[in-house]
Amino acid sequence: MDEKYDVIVLGTGLKECILSGLLSVSGKKVLHMDRNKYYGGASASLSPLEELYKHFGLEEQPPEQMGRGRDWNVDLIPKFLMANGQLVKLLIHSGVTRYLEFKSVEGSYVYKKGGKIHKVPSTEAEALSSSLMGLLEKRRFRNFVSWVGSYDEKKESTHKGVDPKKPMKAAFEKHGLEQNTIDFVGHALALYRDDAYINEPCGPTISRIQLYSESIQRYGKSPYLYPLYGLGELPQGFARLSAIYGGTYMLDKPVDEIVYEGGKVVGVKSKDEVVRTDCVIGDPSYFADKVKKTGQVVRCICIMNHPIPNTKDALSCQIILPQNQVGRSSDIYISCVSFAHNVSTKGYYLAMVSTNVETSNPEEELRPGLDLLGPIQKKFVSVDDIFEPTDNGLDSRVFVSKSYDATTHFETTCDDVLDIFRELLVKPLTSPRSRHKWRQLSNSPLLH
Predict the structure, then answer these.
(1) Which molecular-function annotations from GO does this UniProt entry contain (predicted)?
(2) Contacts of residue 323, Cβ cutoff 8 Å, sequence gap at least 6
(3) What CATH number was assigned to the domain covering residues 4-42+232-292+387-447?
(4) Which of these, 226, 230, 302, lies nearest to 75 by C-alpha position?
């Protein structure tokens, strides 16, 4: 094949489709290839329901009471969008919102040692009414929330003695917060995956809590959104965007070899053809020689005919079990959606429980989360390796995304996408068809 592309993107996971769309809009000539016949890659949305059974190697058929298979759209790695977060901004910035319809998630909860879940308080009023804390702690937390809400790194008068460079530990100590409160602030509001942030500068943590608060103010019930018909709509939306701007898509296309000359990528071989390019982007499954395994994630998709108990019959919700509350080194995450999001037959719910693997019995590690769900009609358990690239790709011009983590939100996913895009900006791609569009996208505040 004599034709040359500015960029070849391998895999149609959400990260790769976002990059394909953004690069096409910026004037790049993009070829997008996937060995699979469907969009989404590891994060695909499976429909009909029979496809889910087949994906997990089950020969049995779904029971009749689960209704028509085509009424189901089951995400293999469900994640929620922060209403004011990075992915929503990317959707608006790129215009992909025209292809999608969203519905707010009804509740955001946090687990406290002892087996109970509580609504995550994010405002002063919720702090005073929360059952998560005692009376005196409610007041201390209310003061903390008020302080965070007015905090501005550029205005020293709002710091109240806590400089942005001071560790977050200093902010907690200033307000006298108890350890249980610190756990849910760090993991359910700031959405950190471990406690390293406590000894790091407090500025980023305060910004994360402010993002949570800003997102919840947009819809009231929770800070999260979820697309109707499942996450499969997201990569397809960015694929449509790419196609409108000249991007070429090839599904069911084998990738046999990444071709290099002098250590730099020059093309991708598929059967007897070599497609020429100056840059390749893709998910870890295409680059065994450029990734390292950093751990594993265990996930359990659960089909239920009832809402999760103690969530006020919420049709959708997120629950975070902070690591310290369950005696682990990693949080456990639960996401739940239902027929209200057009992902299941009426009356049915889809819950996902996930966490990082820490023992030789991964499924048992999900037990604290599974115990919160009530009766489960059917479970589908998977254990997936987590990979990260071994270098930043600047020398080889091969940029590899990270595997999807255990979190139930898209903030870490967007961090990875924007990190790759920033690396591309270090040495901009050659032969831009539209320098104006490239400069316009490069200067977007999303990328800085």
Answers:
(1) GTPase activator activity; Rab GDP-dissociation inhibitor activity
(2) 187, 194, 195, 329, 330, 331
(3) 3.50.50.60
(4) 230
- Predicted local confidence at residue 308, as pLDDT: 98
Which of 119, 94, 90 has the alpha carbon at shortest distance from 106? 119
Which residues, listed in sequence order, are joined to residue 74 by a DSSP beta bridge? 46
pLDDT in tens, 283-310: 999 999 999 999 999 999 999 999 999 9
Contact of 376 with 302, CB cutoff 8 Å: yes
Q: Provide the whole-model pTM.
A: 0.90
Tell me the pLDDT tens digit for each residue of 144-162. 999 999 999 999 999 999 9
Which amino acid is residue 217, in one-letter code? Q
Residue 4 structure tokens? 């040359």
Q: The CATH number of 57-106+293-386 is which of 3.20.20.120, 2.40.30.20, 3.30.519.10, 3.40.50.150?
A: 3.30.519.10
Extract the tokens encoding 119. 């609504």
CB atoms within 10 A of CB 57: 7
- Show the low-confidence residues of the chain (pLDDT under 50): 426-448
